[in-house]
């Protein structure tokens, strides 16, 4: 399982990876975005990739998406942008509302992303 994101979403990914590891899943992620771009080369069609991105519009996230999608892996997106190519072309997606305004020009989805992550973990753990 591969986890991608940047900015404050790194914290969500870190929590998700730690819990998945406790449930015996092999997870790959990095807090360094350049490393994230490199690890896309290790993705194959048996993998699941999660991308956490508020807007889905940054060039770097689109590059990661393109690389992953070309490898025919299962792609799950969590975003607030229903019109982004990542959302439209993902295999599964979670739409987050724009409800976490922190500063005048800064919006985040950390709380919503964490809620999704915890629900996924709950379902994985109790579906055994």
TL;DR?
This protein has 128 residues and is of the alpha/beta class.
Describe this structure in words.
The chain is 42% helix and 19% strand. By secondary structure, it is α/β, with parallel strands linked by helices. It starts with a strand and ends with a helix. It has a single domain (2-126), classed as Glucose-6-phosphate isomerase like protein, domain 1 (Rossmann fold, 3-Layer(aba) Sandwich), CATH 3.40.50. The mean pLDDT is 88. It is globular, with a radius of gyration of 14 Å.
Keywords, separated by commas or semicolons:
128 residues; alpha/beta; Rossmann fold; four-stranded parallel β-sheet; two-stranded antiparallel sheet; 6 strands; 42% helix; globular
